[in-house]
Here is the input.
Amino acid sequence: MQSDRSNTLTVVRQAGKSCPDCGEQRPADAFYQRPDGRLSTYCKVHQRQRSRESYRRRRQDPAELLRMREQERVRKRTTRSRLSMLDPAEKPDSGSPVTQRFDA
Here is the structure.
């Protein structure tokens, strides 16, 4: 069976891809695959390096750190709200403490 040369994803996977950071032609498995099937822009090594640097840069800026924390609080609040609406019966009674008994 011949490969479909009109499909650009197939062509890129067979030929490989060039990473803009290192400039090397690398095979397709050296790149992460996006959910839509395309390959990431940077090779895995440089993608991890860029992510690590970005994370550190954001953590050093106090305003950015506050923004990230607030964003995480909102995300968790939204998730909890959505989950409580799915099955409100499993929500623990917040008025009484939970006690456990252990037989000796």
